[in-house]
Amino acid sequence: MTFGQQPQPNPNYEPQGNNTLNTGYGAPQYQVAGQQNAGYSQYNQQMPPQYAQPRYGQPQYAYAGQGGAAATVNGQVAYSYEQAERVSVTKAYGEMTIGLVVTALVAVLAQITGAYYYFLAATGVIGLIGLCVVQVGMAIVLGMRITKMSVGAARAMFYVYAALMGFTLSSIFWVYDLGQIGIALGVTAAFFLALTMFSLTTKFDMLKFGPILMVALVVLIITQLVLAFIPGVSGMTRIVCAIGLVIFAGMTMYDAQSTRALFKAYEAQGPEMIRKISILCALNLYLDFVNMFLYILQLFGSRD
Question: Which residue, of 16, 68, 166, 265, has the greatest Cβ tally within 10 A?
């Protein structure tokens, strides 16, 4: 070929595996649509289905494996949430149990040493009222300020409250014998466990009864305060104790479901907030248990 001449195409030349039409040296190369589609069809037939490329303009379908993977991920997320919820609820009941153990130990210790007797002998009614005011104040502060407190401070306040409750409850040893106290404690534990298991497994929503239970609780407290200053109403006192037992049974179911709802509401704020909420839930469940125990003891125990 001399300089300035155009190359002559070879009439016997056939393109091999190029899927393009050669129009001469320096000319653009255009893809032949039929050959391109044929090449893709052959490519898709040779490749496994999960790697095959869809044609342009054809709908793309998700394979069953991909849908299964998405379902697996969703299932793992749901399982992780349920597991975290169980751990949080278990932690709340664990804190409650520790509080009850502290209360029992302090009550027994105060009875053995006579600390509560000497306290009342030194302070009289003023000391008793002051002790009750301190306990109520601690419960209110812990309930209202727990989200702004540190976990250590909230836990310490809860255990101090449980210790003060045990110090006050040591007076039951003056009225009831150990057998009656033990039976009442066992019945309360079984009743509390049954109510808790029912509340956490049933679809019945107890949270909607919260306002009714709070009104009933306020009426119960006022009634007991009035009856405390009226002599000779022992029969009425038993009726009030029975009503109180029913109210706190409802409160136990309410607080069991409320514990789960609170963890769900605060889960986005991190593990530290969950630990704080577990202490608040432990306080609520602790109060339910203690009050049911006292009502059961008054209903079925005989005073010495």
Answer: 166
Structure token pair of residue 202: 């049933």
Q: What percent of the chain shows pLDDT beyond 70?
A: 69
pLDDT of residue 39: 45
Strand partners, 30: 21
Which residue did the predictor score with more confidence, 268 or 286? Answer: 286
Strands 20-21 and 30-31, by their bridges, are: antiparallel
Query: How much is the pTM?
Result: 0.72
**pLDDT band at residue 238 using 50, 70 and 90 as cut-offs:** confident
Query: Are the C-beta atoms of 251 and 217 separated by less than 8 Å?
Result: yes
Tokens coding 184? 């009442």
Segments making up each domain of the chain, as ranges:
88-300
56/263 Cα distance (integer angstroms): 50
